[in-house]
Specification:
By secondary structure, the protein is an alpha/beta fold. It is built from four helices and 15 strands. It has helices at about 1-20, 20-30, 40-55, 60-80, and strands at about 80-85, 90, 95, 100-105, 110, 115, 120-125, 135, 140, 145-150, 155, 160, 165, 175, 180-185. The strands form three sheets. Strands 3-6-9-12-14-15 form a six-stranded mixed beta sheet. Strand 14 and strand 15 (about 180-185) form a beta hairpin. The chain is globular, with a radius of gyration of 16 Å. Mean pLDDT is about 90; it is low at about 1-15.
């Protein structure tokens, strides 16, 4: 199942990269209710800018954009509490619904049309595996305060309950709740 989800995520990311920076930002703006003042929209827009700046090949020309990205990234992280590095594989129309205490590991992948809420952590489970990070499929709904740790795959259309702690794969269409999480509904 993990291999299937990972191949779907790679397709999502390649589709997003086919769009230009402004097209992606416009989609994200619409997904966030056409409100440019929402911290989630701002975090996603800065992420998109961070990814775009890496397409500028001469490092000398990229340098001022990298400085600007660094300042904007830190402002969003420190002011809104949303840590979304440019290295995250972010699908299209991902919504960060609320601000505060959102930490997303740089090796994570988040599929199209997913929703992330306040207090969510997508991160490491073991320090000796620093690159193992969660992979979310399309239309994943992550509840407030949920924690997803390690090299786990969350299937398309899955629901992660508020404050759930996910330590294993969640199949497509399933709902996971509890600490540690258990599957309560299968799609």
């Amino acid at each position: 199942m993990g291999v299937q989800i990972n191949s779907v995520l790679q397709t999502n990311i390649s589709e997003a990269s086919d769009l230009g920076l402004w097209q992606q930002i416009k989609e994200d703006w619409i997904a966030h209710g056409k409100d440019w003042t929402k911290p989630g929209f701002r975090a996603v827009a800065i992420h998109r800018f961070g990814v775009w700046r890496m397409t500028i090949k001469p490092k000398l020309l990229r340098a001022p954009f990298s400085v600007l990205y660094g300042m904007l990234y830190r402002k969003v992280r420190n002011q809104y509490g949303i840590e979304l590095p440019y290295t995250v594989e972010l699908g299209r129309r991902v919504v960060i619904e609320h601000q505060g205490d959102i930490v997303i590991h740089g090796c994570c992948a988040i599929g199209d049309d997913s929703i992330i809420r306040q207090g969510v952590t997508l991160g490491l489970r073991y320090l000796e595996h620093p690159l193992d990070a969660p992979k979310l499929g399309k239309r994943v709904n992550v509840g407030a305060g949920a924690k997803i740790f390690g090299n786990v795959s969350i299937g398309d259309n899955a629901n992660i309950g508020a404050n759930a702690v996910i330590l294993c794969d969640v199949p497509p269409g399933a709902t996971a709740v509890g600490i540690p999480a258990r599957i309560i509904v299968r799609g």
